[in-house]
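Worked example

This section walks through a single chain of length 366. The input is the sequence exactly as stored; nothing has been trimmed or padded.
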Amino acid sequence: MADARAGSSGAPAAGDVVVLLVAGSGRSGSTLLASALGQLPGAFCAGELRFLWQRGVVEDHRCGCGDPFSRCPVWTAVLADVRRAHPELDPAGLAERLRRRMRARRLPRLLARRALGLPPVPPSPDDAVLAELYAAIARTTGCRVVVDPSKLPLYGLLLQQLPGVDLRVVHLVRDPRATAWSWRRRKPTGDRAGAGALMPRPGLVRSSVLWVLWNVVAALAWPPAPGAPAGATPLPRPPGRASSTRRPAVRVRYEDLVADPAGALRAAAGVAGLPAEHLPLRGGGGAPVEAVLAPTHTVAGNPDRHRSGPVVLREDDEWRRAMPRRARALVGALTAPGRLVLRTRGDRTAPAAAVRSAAAADGAAS
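Given that input, the structure is written out below as tokens.
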């Protein structure tokens, strides 16, 4: 599939498929980060694969390339490959069962199972189909790293226990006041040609609670390796260890991603062993830094996944000027426990720790 991934390094290496999960909460820049990583040789940005069965197969939303999912040559080939191994596949049933397995109210049980040394997500016959999906993507695209910005840590815990999956994690964190304000915008989904459907707009309380929930779980599940420099080569899996062995992880701040794109992307690429010398960046030296993005085959996610070409990297800091003071205070109070956990769980490994949001330029990129 030559158009699936121009510049691919060829067939994936024998063994597990490396899945690079972008974890964290929504509106944190995951679409930009994943799309940029997907431009690197040997990587394929697949979009939020936890939604593939419902939004792609059942509802036939648009692929990042612009075609409906059912007419995209990449996903047509991937699904045909999966069906050869699982002819009994029921996408609608799998989507519903997966949705139930990922409910937030199951979180205490999942964490208790993990503490007892059990697979956090109770195993299901669907796991073989999910594992086959990632293997089929690698075979079809010829890429050894599948970038999945599904964000949801519960889905990451499920991926970590799938056979044949070698999970690596980039935990992407953004100021919770910025994410809460971003969620209030009216934003068309772009999932159907000519349709005006908008993305959901959770209130300040809901977006704050989810920010705490998903970022704290990600921080506890995949803390950055102590003392590891940002962008270090990922640690290999020890011989003979089970697939639940903790994977390499790095934490990246959105504010660092837009202030020091090269540093942040090198750190993220290093977790999966991707060649950081081919970063899709240009500019700098006084000129705005741009990410030059080729069209993707992302199956679901933020509408920005449909954008290609040069994207100027500037911090979206509208919240600083437009967010009412009381709203800022509310979000700050609700997210204080989560921010405390992040400070005590390896924040020192952020790739550009000296660069903070006050140094980022004005503008908008998400």
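What to look for: The mean pLDDT is 84.
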